[in-house]
Amino acid sequence: MIHELRTYTLMPGKQGEYLKLNEQVGRKVRGDKYGKLEGSWTTEFGLLNQFVHLWNYPSLDERDRLRGELSKNDEWTKGYVPQIRPMLQAQENKILSVQLPFKPPVEPGHLYELRWYRTQVGKAGEWLGHFKAIMPVREKYSTNVGVWQTEAGQLNEVVHMWAYRDLNHRASVRGQVMQDPEWQAFLGKSSPLLIEMRSVILNPAPASPMK
């Protein structure tokens, strides 16, 4: 199984129109016939007017096959895509290998934090080893949604996602985690392996399966 994380940067002022088309047209045409949509979100802080969506495929070969089939769907290529293309300023994607079990929340009512860390060249595996070992400690405070390593896109990168009730819950959790001596020990071992850390807060889009 692989995941594909796609990020579209929208023209300012077009987010509402794009989300409406995505919900009412795009999702109805595509559904989960051409890859399973795990979740879709809009950015809350940092670079605004972004639409982030996470797709699930059995393999890279199956992704290529399904996207080929999608390109033959006239409702998609002639109906939906021409409507949204003028709203898009940029598109990015990452192919991700799953490193820990993917655990989307069952109940709705969350905001999400997506974090991606770039390691020194060749050090992603070592950093992941430390991260996996400390996960039982970290999950005493909040539950992880997913941990991935990039296979295409920016290499030497680990992506992880967390769900919180709201920003106050996130602040409380992170405050508690930073007081944990085991977490501090993890930071001492793992931080020297990193060269860049980024984070974005995500709100579920109207058509997102993950709420």
What structural class do helix, strand and pairing data support? alpha+beta
Look at the structure and give the CATH class of the largest domain: Alpha Beta
Q: Main sheet, how many strands, which sense, barrel?
A: 8 strands, antiparallel, barrel
Summed over residues and divided by their number, the pLDDT gives a mean of: 96
List the domain count as a whole number.
2
* Helical run tally: 6
The CATH topology assignment of the largest domain is Alpha-Beta Plaits
What do you see in this structure?
The chain has 211 residues and is an alpha+beta fold. The protein has helices at residues 15-30, 60-70, 74-84, 124-138, 167-178, 181-190, and strands spanning 2-10, 36-43, 50-57, 88-100, 111-119, 144-152, 157-164, 194-204. Strand 2 (36-43) and strand 3 form a beta hairpin. The chain has an eight-stranded antiparallel barrel with strand order 1-3-2-8-5-7-6-4. Helix content is 36%, strand content 36%. The longest helix is centred in the N-terminal third of the chain and has 16 residues, at 15-30. The radius of gyration is 18 Å and the shape is globular. The model has no long low-confidence stretch (mean pLDDT 96). It has two domains: 2-95, Alpha-Beta Plaits; 97-204, Alpha-Beta Plaits (2-Layer Sandwich), CATH 3.30.70.
